[in-house]
Known about the structure:
Elements: E1 2-6, H1 12-22, E2 26-31, E3 44-47, E4 64-67, H2 73-83, E5 90-93, H3 118-124, H4 137-151, E6 156-161, E7 164-165, H5 173-183, E8 186-190, E9 196-197, E10 200-201, H6 202-214, E11 219-223, E12 230-231, H7 232-242, E13 248-252, H8 254-259, H9 287-290, H10 299-312, H11 324-340
Parallel strand pairs: 1-2, 1-4, 2-3, 4-5, 5-6, 6-11, 7-10, 8-13
Antiparallel strand pairs: 9-12
Helix pairs in contact: 1-6, 2-4, 5-10, 7-10
Amino acid sequence: MKILILGGTRFLGRFLTESALERGHEVTLFNRGKENPELFPDVEKLVGDRGGDLSALEEGEWEAVIDTCGFVPRVVRESAKLLAERTGHYTFISSASVYDELERAGIDEEHPVGQMSLSDAEEMTKGMTNPPANEYYGELKFLCEQEVKQQFPGRSLIVRPGLIVGPYDFTGRFSYWVNRVAKGGTVLAPGRKDKRIQLIDVRDLAEWIIRMVEQQNSGIFNAAGPESVLTMEAFLGECKRALKSDAEFVWVDEAFLLENEVGYWLELPLWIPDSEQMEGFLSLDIDKALKTGLAFRPLSETIRDTCEWELEHQALERKAGLAHEKEQEVLEKWRTRKIDS
C-alpha cells in the first residue's frame, strides 16, 4: 500500500512510519524537513509547509494519508482538499480533548464535544498553523475532524487518543513519573490512590492505526489503555516494580496540594483533582477500538523502555514535572501538618 504521512519523524509519526515500513508499505513523508531529517533515509520525502507551501503535494497518488499534525481547521481543509481526488482514505489524529461534559467516566465516541463556530476559529487562528492556546485545543481539533469528513465522506478514520506515552515523548508527562520513581526515596503521590488514569504506548497506537489503515476502516475511535482499569496507585506500584526502585510513596490529599499551589496535569502529570470534575478525561470507553484489534504491551515494558530512552536524553529540557525542591518542600509541610494535627 502507498501511504502518505503528514509529519512522520516525531513521536507518533515516527512510529507510524516505522510500523508501516515493517509491514511492507511504501511510505512518503511530507514535512518541513526540520525534525529528525536523518531518519528513514530510504523513504521518499516531500518538503513543504502546511501553513503555506503545499506545492510538493500537488502531484502523486496514494491509497491512504495519515495526518499526524493537523491543529488548525483552515490548514487541514487545504491539505485534505488538495489530496481528496488522489488519495483513497484519510486518517486524522485527533484527541480526547474534543470531549465536553467530562464529569462522568466511560465517555464513548457519541459523547458531546466542545463547540466553536468555524468563523470564530478562522479569526482566532488567522496566520497560524498551530493552535494559539490549550484552552481551545479540543474545539479546534473537532473542527479539523469535520473538515476531513467533508473532503473524504465515508472514507475517513478519526482517532481520538488519550495520553500517548513511551520512548521519544518530549512532553515529559509520563516520563516524569518514570524518572522520579527510578530515583527512589520519598515520592509525593497525588490525591486518591484509586483515581483512575489512562495512557497508551505510542508503539501500540501506531501499530493499530496502520492495521486500521490497511483495512480502510472509517469512523471515529477512542484510543487509550490499558484494557482493564488502571489506578494511580497501581501505576506507581508498577513503576516501582519494573524499575526495581526503593521509592516510598507519600499520598498527599488534593486540597493540600491546591492550597500549596501544586499544579495539576503539567506540574504533577496524570493528576486532575476531583474538584475539576473531569473524571471522564482519563476513563474513555475504548470498546469500539478493542473490537477492531487494539492491543497493549505490558505496562512494565513501556516503563522500562521509557526509562532507557530518558537515560540517553538527560540533557533535554522537560516540559512537565514537579521540581525536586518544591516536592520536598510540600512533603515537609505535609509531615508537619500531620504531626500538628
